[in-house]
Amino acid sequence: MKLYPQTGSEERARQLAWFATQSLIDEARLSPKPGLVDSRGNGAHHDLTLALMERSAHSLTPTFQALALQCWQRPADIALRQTVGRLGREGESQMMAATDGVNTHRGAIWALGLIVSAAAMLGGSGSPRDITETAAAIARLPDHAAPKVFSKGLRATRRYRVPGAREEAQQGFPHVMKLALPQLLRSRRQGASQSEAQLDALMAIMTSLSDTCVLSRAGLPGLEAMQNGARAVLLAGGCGGEQGRAALARLDSQMLALNASPGGAADLLAATLLLDRIAQPD
Ligand SMILES: CC(C)(COP(=O)(O)OP(=O)(O)OC[C@H]1O[C@@H](n2cnc3c(N)ncnc32)[C@H](O)[C@@H]1O)[C@@H](O)C(=O)NCCC(=O)NCCS
Ligand SMILES: Nc1ncnc2c1ncn2[C@@H]1O[C@H](COP(=O)(O)OP(=O)(O)OP(=O)(O)O)[C@@H](O)[C@H]1O
């Protein structure tokens, strides 16, 4: 069944897509992030640059818009799950074409794609809780058309018996809802600047995520260094203070020495920024 959104929904779909792209760009530019691409440089990555991340983010706007239009006021059912899966995979192809085959945003297409879809299902807005619960309902449905492909993430979740990107979404994005968003709001209330509050939110995610990017590149020692280092930054008062910034610099050096990059945490920060943006009044 094809649904034709009424006027107004098309405008909101365009806006949601723009919000998603902008959240990816904000995440990529935010600095200094440990191990990740930021406006200082490439972090632990040899094949990624900030310009590439930005090109990739822009290439995804049509995907986010198509997701919003197709999901507009529809319930979570198998038909919708298949549409979302197809559009997500088309988005991955567009990203690969824009980056000459470099994986810049695979995990982000998944997380932000589900959130844009869920916001559209709810008529274009909603509380972070309603949106993430709706996103989880789509993520839990089977996508029979999904090809069985090898992925580093899947291998890491099996080898270390930890949840990965799929499970994070199926559980309603607990690292966003229980850690990152509360930290973002708390740091803002305590007078941190916008980027300090966003860095604190990233740290909050990194204290507990089983990030399969880190596990694939640096194993359990890498994951432990990430979680302990992020905890140390927050315990030192967060990125708004001198001690917190010194702890952040130590964590950055450690991640670089281990060749570790918390790509999954970065995706979830972008998801946090998107939910924060959707929740703002127009
Ligand atoms: C579920 C996905 C992410 C694949 O996951 P998998 O772990 O098998 O693959 P892969 O290693 O390629 O990517 C995982 C990416 O997720 C991020 N990530 C890593 N760990 C985590 C974590 N614990 N939590 C959240 N994200 C994480 C990282 O960026 C990583 O690169 C996704 O690509 C997928 O299945 N897409 C199919 C299309 C679809 O259904 N789309 C619908 C929404 S648009
Ligand atoms: N600012 C960022 N810097 C680096 N990675 C990011 C950033 N933001 C998000 N990511 C995520 O991190 C992932 C990249 O991780 P990684 O490089 O480990 O993946 P890979 O290309 O599959 O593996 P490898 O580079 O080890 O061959 C991207 O899919 C993206 O979702």
From TrEMBL:
GO biological process: prosthetic group biosynthetic process
Name of the top EC class for this enzyme: transferase
Keyword Glycosyltransferase annotated: yes
InterPro entries: CitG (IPR002736), TriPribosyl-deP-CoA_syn (IPR017555)
Catalytic reaction(s) noted: 3'-dephospho-CoA + ATP = 2'-(5''-triphospho-alpha-D-ribosyl)-3'-dephospho-CoA + adenine
EC number of the protein: 2.4.2.52
Keyword Zinc-finger carried by entry: no
Pfam family, any one: CitG
UniProt GO molecular function: ATP binding; glycosyltransferase activity; triphosphoribosyl-dephospho-CoA synthase activity
Keywords: ATP-binding, Glycosyltransferase, Nucleotide-binding, Transferase
Function, as annotated: Involved in the formation of 2-(5''-phosphoribosyl)-3'-dephosphocoenzyme-A, the prosthetic group of the acyl-carrier protein of the malonate decarboxylase.
UniProt similarity note: Belongs to the CitG/MdcB family.
HAMAP family in alphabetical order: MdcB
Stated name of the protein: 2-(5''-triphosphoribosyl)-3'-dephosphocoenzyme-A synthase
Native organism taxonomy: Bacteria, Pseudomonadati, Pseudomonadota, Gammaproteobacteria, Enterobacterales
